[in-house]
Design a protein that fits this description.
Helix content: 10-25%
Strand content: over 45%
Number of domains: 1
Largest sheet: 12 strands, antiparallel
Order of helices and strands: EHEEEEHHEEEEEEEEEE
Number of helices: 3
Shape: globular
Distance between the termini: 44 Å
Low-confidence stretches: 8-29, 280-285
Amino acid sequence: MTTRTIRTVCAGLLGAAAMALWALPVSAGQDTVDTSLPALLERLGQYVQRYERDLSAVVSEEQYEQTVASQGGLPADTRQLRSDFLLASAGEAGWVAFRDVFEVDSAPVSGRTDRLIELFVKPTGDSRQQVKQIVDASSKYNLGWVNRTINVPTMVLQFARPDQQARSAFRRAGMSEVSVGRVREIRFNERALPRMIQTPDNAAATGAFWIDEATGRIVRTELRVSAGSTTAVIGVSYARQPKLDLWLPVLMNERYSTPRQATITGRAIYRNFRRFDVEVGTIIK
């Protein structure tokens, strides 16, 4: 089979927007809120920007199942991963979001050290290289023929940053009813080069954000990107975590499909959110 590659520009999710988003106050006059596309994009960008300014670090436990569907008489293959999933600032490396796999199919990962603490409490002179090493080490456990590092729930958020919105064409779509109320869908198509996500054919990313119109709060996202004949679709759902007073991804569904190969699907559940104290190297339960 042909190996296809879908990677971030920096190969380590460097600069990727993190997954915790602060809730902004809802205006009392919500019926008169400006819901034009420019106003919605401004609130969306401010929402992501507020996170980057105020969040320190959050760790969750990720339970991640990947499956390659059966095809041509070949049996299906399934893999279960358990990881610490960290979102934090890595100094010059920028904001990062990555997984540190500690268990594969119920078997502990051998030779694993406390790499998250080493990265943030005892950094070397090249934090970018440290991040890349952890991301590359984690991606080797991915199942299937697609070589990828985009399978993190917050990858799409970088397209919503105020300084990155000009890279894409946005349009206001319809309203949807979700568990927290009615939300507006905003879709985007990447236009600028170089692409934020690298593929062999330099394909543009597309996707969508479902947001509260008055606050810009994100409740769902979708990211779609192609590599040759393979199309990747990653959908994420957010929920408020009262303990941290943050809206965080709780579910990620992904699908990689191509006409001539079996389909790869993934489902990741996030729980046990807690703060990571980078000053003393401890995870606060």
